[in-house]
Q: What sequence folds into this?
């Protein structure tokens, strides 16, 4: 099998052909000519003011309700430094973003997973946990969730806000994929429904490039000021140069055509992923996402994902650890398939190798 080309269903990364390199070259030159001395100097911990103002205008908030950072995950780290002491309770969806789970546990939080259904978190399970624990916050990805691909319904979003109001806890809405809707209609942002109760986090990683390291958080200005003080004490200044380049790119109106370019690139890849699952793995339970980067699959028994992952590696197919997405157990048959960075042909071949691996593991289990 060593002559096979490796196929990576591991990280949710953009396609390299999606990067707007020429536009960014022009934006960088213009930003440096216009704001060079500011962008090359230490900057305010809230970030480059013109980009904050642009984002505030897009989201109909005040600029002091916007903070920029080096990616949204670092902003979540700063929030955790502010709010979490060892032993504190935090809720996430189950499954949830594995790096967020790792970050929260590293702070000493007890992370409780709320099971995810086809239309968002299981609200009976959420309310049941709230009878025993009120979390410091509930971290969730309502749009095209990482890792499942599920989108939370409008009804559930409103009920989640009602519970947050009743039990008095913060909602942290991570929304990096929201612009990448390929079908259906947008559901309301939690932040739009209850800006006093929600911190909205996102970034330019999936729209421009991860290498930009430009993330942002929106919310109560007093809470952001406290987060900004932690940021200042951590790195003195954010990446103001990247902020300036991103601002110039946005100011020039590049965002809308870039989003359309991404949709045209990624829709055929999602369709190829779903078609390959129907063709090669009809017994698997697959989420059919309306956008984003991920399709998730529940493998048929008796094929645990940890053994399938080992078998897949022999076929030069690399899979993420499905168990890592579950904060407090579960996921023994869960597989995440990031499709955006692969061609339709690679996706079909990868899922064919996945099907072969599942069959091998199932045969071995039957003989034990």
A:
């Amino acid at each position: 099998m060593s002559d096979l080309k490796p196929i990576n269903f591991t990280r949710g990364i953009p396609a390299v052909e999606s990067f707007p390199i020429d536009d960014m070259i022009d934006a960088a030159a213009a930003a440096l000519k216009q704001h060079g001395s500011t962008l090359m100097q230490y900057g305010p911990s809230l970030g480059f003011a013109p980009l904050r103002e642009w984002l505030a205008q897009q989201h109909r908030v005040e600029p002091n309700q916007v903070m920029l950072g080096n990616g949204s995950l670092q902003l979540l780290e700063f929030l955790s430094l502010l709010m979490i002491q060892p032993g504190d309770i935090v809720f996430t969806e189950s499954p949830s973003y594995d790096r967020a789970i790792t970050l929260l546990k590293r702070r000493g939080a007890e992370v409780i997973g709320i099971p995810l259904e086809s239309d968002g978190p299981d609200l009976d399970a959420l309310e049941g946990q709230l009878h025993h624990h009120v979390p410091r916050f509930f971290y969730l990805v309502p749009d095209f969730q990482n890792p499942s691909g599920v989108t939370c319904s409008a009804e559930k979003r409103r009920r989640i806000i009602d519970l947050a109001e009743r039990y008095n806890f913060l909602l942290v809405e991570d929304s990096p994929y929201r612009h990448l809707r390929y079908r259906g209609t947008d559901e309301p942002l939690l932040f739009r429904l209850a800006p006093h109760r929600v911190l909205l986090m996102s970034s330019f990683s999936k729209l421009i490039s991860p290498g930009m390291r430009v993330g942002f958080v929106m919310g109560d200005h007093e809470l952001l000021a406290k987060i900004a003080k932690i940021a200042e004490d951590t790195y003195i200044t954010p990446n103001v140069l990247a902020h300036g380049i991103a601002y110039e790119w946005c100011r020039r109106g590049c965002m809308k055509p870039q989003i359309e370019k991404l949709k045209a690139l990624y829709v055929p890849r999602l369709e190829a992923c779903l078609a390959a699952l129907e063709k090669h793995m009809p017994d698997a339970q697959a989420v059919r996402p309306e956008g984003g980067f991920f399709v998730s699959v529940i493998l048929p028994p008796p094929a645990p994902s940890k053994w399938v992952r080992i078998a897949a590696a022999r076929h030069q197919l690399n899979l993420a650890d499905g168990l890592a997405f579950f904060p407090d157990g579960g996921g023994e048959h869960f597989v995440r398939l990031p499709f955006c960075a692969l061609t339709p042909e690679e996706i079909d071949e990868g899922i064919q190798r996945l099907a072969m691996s599942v069959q091998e593991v199932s045969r071995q289990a039957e003989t034990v």
